[in-house]
Write a structure and sequence with these properties.
Blueprint lengths: L5 E5 L6 E2 L3 H14 L15 H11 L6 H19 L6 E2 L3 H9 L4 E6 L4 H10 L9 E2 L7 H13 L6 E6 L2 H9 L3 E5 L6 H7 L3 E3 L5 H11 L7
Helix pairs in contact: 1-3, 4-9, 6-7
Length: about 230
């Protein structure tokens, strides 16, 4: 009997790669260019959040009013312009085991890969291209699609499945917000402690499986596929 489709969604920053702060640097430059406020994102949490929600917090923090959608469109344009440059100013890396794991998953006919990231779409594409991972992701959902992380994850799963009914959806991420979004969608959360949260933090948040990192990509592959059993009863 053929195995049912497994959708595996990956977060981007601190899960697949690190940019050395290129994204925050680009956001700060775009914000200063538009509003004259330096280091606008200082003390604003951004791990696991969507880019529009980060911008919304920065505007609120600095008392800036206006039509949010108009501001968002202008900010996104300036942010992407700066990001194209900051990605080459900072020193980042693809995290250990990631290229091998993605390549192994892509080779399986019963697996569909997707990206579920709070980055703006074009920002995500620039980061993936800069670090040579863009070939792995044809489908995904981004901060442009939804500010709410659970909505974003649900949309990413639908796009990756391309009309098929998956037997299981796994959501791989480095923050409790990734875990919470997966649980809200009744998907299986998989934690990777390569960001700002420990393995214990991710377990407490409800991750079904937690890896310290993906350097043992073959072990990670086996565990991910073992988690891809039937959907639990609703």
């Amino acid at each position: 009997m053929p195995r049912s489709l497994v959708v595996v969604l990956f977060d981007l920053d601190q899960t697949l790669l690190r940019t050395g702060g290129a994204g925050v640097l680009a956001m700060n430059r775009a914000f200063q260019e538009m509003f004259g406020v330096a280091d606008a994102l200082a003390d604003i949490p951004y791990a696991g959040r969507t880019d529009p929600s980060i911008l919304r917090d920065a505007l609120r923090r600095h008392g800036i009013d206006g039509d949010f959608q108009q501001i968002l469109a202008a900010f996104k344009e300036r942010y992407v312009w700066h990001l194209e440059r900051t990605l080459w100013e900072t020193e980042g890396q693809v995290l250990p085991g990631v290229p091998q794991l993605l390549a192994a998953l892509r080779q399986r006919p019963d697996v569909a890969l997707g990206l579920a990231t709070g980055n703006f779409r074009e920002g995500a594409r620039l980061k993936l291209r800069r670090y040579g991972l863009d070939e792995h992701f044809r489908h995904g959902a981004y901060g442009d699609d939804a500010e709410d992380r659970a909505e974003l994850v649900a949309l990413a799963a639908r796009r990756a499945a391309q009309g098929q009914e998956p037997g299981r959806v796994l959501v791989v991420g480095d923050t409790p917000l990734d875990v919470a979004a997966a649980l809200a969608c009744r998907f299986t959360p998989v934690g990777v402690a390569t960001g700002y949260y420990s393995t214990d933090d991710l377990r407490r948040a409800g991750a079904a499986v937690v890896f310290p990192d993906l350097s043992d990509w073959q072990g990670a592959l086996s565990l991910l596929l073992a988690e891809a059993g039937p959907v639990p009863p609703r």
